[in-house]
Amino acid sequence: MKNNTSFLLQEGEAHSSRCPDNSAFKQQKLPAWKPQLNIATVLSSFFLTGAFCLSVGICLILSANSVREVQIDYSDKCSDCSKLRENSSNWNKECHCSVNFTLKEDILGDVFMYYGLQNFYQNHRRYVISRSDAQLLGRNINIQKSYCAPFTTYQNGTSMAPCGAIANSMFNDTIDLFHNCNSSVIQVPLLKTGNSWWTDKNVKFRNPKSYNLSSAFAETARPPYWQKPVYLLDEEDERNNGYVNDDFIIWMRVSAFATFRNLYRRVSRIRQFADGLPAGNYTFQISYNFPVTKFKGRKHVILSTVTWSGGRNPFLGIAYVVSGTAATLTGFVITAIHLKLRKKKTYFQK
To answer: From what superkingdom does this record's organism come (predicted)?
Structure first.
């Protein structure tokens, strides 16, 4: 009997120890603010929200419309090169084409060059996960255990660097811009570094540690669709070569939509281009390597400026305007209902 009593006492102490303290916070007795909604507060909330959203939306739309942009579709203008690239056996054959266009007005300020792809789906689940983040950090791993399959190794056992479907399908057209000024042709200076996110360049991508890149990737091979190995992406700048190449880093950040654009270059504001791109005749010299015919895609080159809100994308501004309009209309509807009910209440009281 004594043992049973002690057991019950211990059990009671265990149960009591699990109970929360008798404090206002743990017993949920703290004072709370309970707003008393009335017609004035409800209507003012709707109208203020509508006014705010409409103001922000109009500012965003005006900002997006002030962006200067030129978009050139070169899919058909480089048709001969496109036919050559349809046959994968011609991967080592070079093909060049040129596209002429005219700027009727100066594009002042910082000018950014993008490449755009249409009907290229990067949002497929198997495509999105087909990469090895550990490999991109420069670690020596067994990529057979990664999600890179089937782009992991060749039949002879040589590992692909980088592995995966995303890296294998990297956009590899080379685009140069020339200004046809009177009788002379001047190449527009373009910046190929500083275009990727700082966190990507300095945190998510690393080259293997070695005294030089060629030795670091000695036991690897390029992906099947690449024309050169990863350690030759930029032979002029060691800080922009290998896995830390800006073009490669930007491509590895996949898009959510089938039509997208990626930053390719920035116009260097020096000499006659210090203020931007002057009006005149220009030419894109393109080394055509990326095939798009098989998936019925299109390729574009875009020259664009940016504003405080970004590039020319009115979607956010339109979304704010629609939200503001909906909130304002809801406020008017509630006002009309309130006035109608108040008239009925006054009538019945009489």
So the answer is: Eukaryota
